[in-house]
Write a structure and sequence with these properties.
By secondary structure, this protein is mainly alpha-helical. The protein has 15 helices and no strands. The chain is globular.
Amino acid sequence: MTVKHKVKPLDRPSSPTPRGRAVLFLKGMAMGVADSVPGVSGGTIAVMAGIYEELLNSIKMLEPRALLVLAKSGPSAFWSHINGSFLLVLLLGIVTSLFLSANTVLYLLANHYVLLMSFFCGLVLASTWYLQGQVSRWNGACLFACLLGGGVTLLVALLNPVSGSDSLLYLFVCGFIAICAMILPGISGAFILLLLGVYDGVLSALRALDFVVIVVFVSGCVCGLLCFSHLLSWTFRNYREQTYSFLSGMLAVSLLVLWPWKLTGQELAGLSSYRLPGDYALASGQAANLLGAIALFCLGFALIHLFERISMSSSE
């Protein structure tokens, strides 16, 4: 059974030891890997790792008022005000992971899609169990919020990808939108990029170090993150239980996005693309890899428990 523990409150920034910083860096790497795969959210990893609210609150502090702190009290006070050590270590982990995983993720998606998605299904199912444990009492408002969150993810899952555009302005807007999804458990920023038609282009730019594309996309992400973090932080402060209920619903239904046995093709929009393993093998002519999928599902599920124990021990 998953060990339930509460996420750190919003106004209690961490002061990690060297070991804690190393664990935080690994959490950042896990978020980077998750954000690079369509169907998996870095916000899911942040919640499961117990750093989600601290991350939101730290990002929220990157505002004009922080410049006043810098001017009046100096760099040290500014760094403490924005929880700079936490953000820097986490960001280094995310960026490192994105650069290292770009080629690997593209290869696995192209050649081992069923096994990769099965692994992530295990991760997400275990994380869903953890996330619902953050709700102390499931009343009518929480149940409604859960259903609403699930409905949002279902709507995103059933959308079809668009062709996209090569415009730098369009890429900026895509970054603005995708980062909002990346920080939400249950909605994948990479999947949003896929829907917007720029997923392959962004990964290729990372792989080729195309700095123009990278800078424009990252600028959109930064703007979106600064705006969206304030909204999420407000909901946690005022509707904490309902917010976790909403996110639990999003995360649970995201398993639909990750379903390993999906057929591709323009004529297979929405639910018509989903198959059971046996039907998938007959319809696609490819092996369903059921035993391997079950094994990797169990591995992903078990890794969440291990990651949770590491997260708990590092915060003690």
